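DM from R.C. (forwarded with permission)

"hey, sorry to bug you on a friday — could you get me a structure for this? deadline for the figure draft is monday and I only need the backbone to look sensible"
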Amino acid sequence: MAQENEKIYSAALIIIGDEVLSGRTKDANTPYIAEKLNDAGVRLKEVRIIPDHAQTIIDTVNEMRNAHDYVFTTGGIGPKNLLEYLKLPNVQAAGGSWMLPKSKVQAGDWQAVTQLCREASELSNMKELTQ
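My reply, with the result:
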């Protein structure tokens, strides 16, 4: 619980994915993220589900960052569009399930997991080169 003069930070969550909008994938992230943010003293004030459309994502991130202290996203980011996200001024890091596929973990294919993480790291490092 916040002290009387303590600022309460607000957060927004953007869920990106046509698969969520179609019902093919169920959102399991919102309750988990809301609970963890609440435990950290941050109030989740808004959640939006949007399609996998680059301009919609950019517009929504920009709108939300102007309204909230923190903006979190889930889904929609992969190796093909990572650099596009990292070029946004308020984005410092990005990742996703493409870096750690469940099938590779379950199979114990740590060599493949290591390689995917190495590739993601190399892509992330390109942000510095493009600025």
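R.C.: lifesaver. Helices lie at 18-21, 29-39, 54-67, 82-86, 102-107, 110-130.
me: no worries. The first strand starts at residue 9 and ends at 16.
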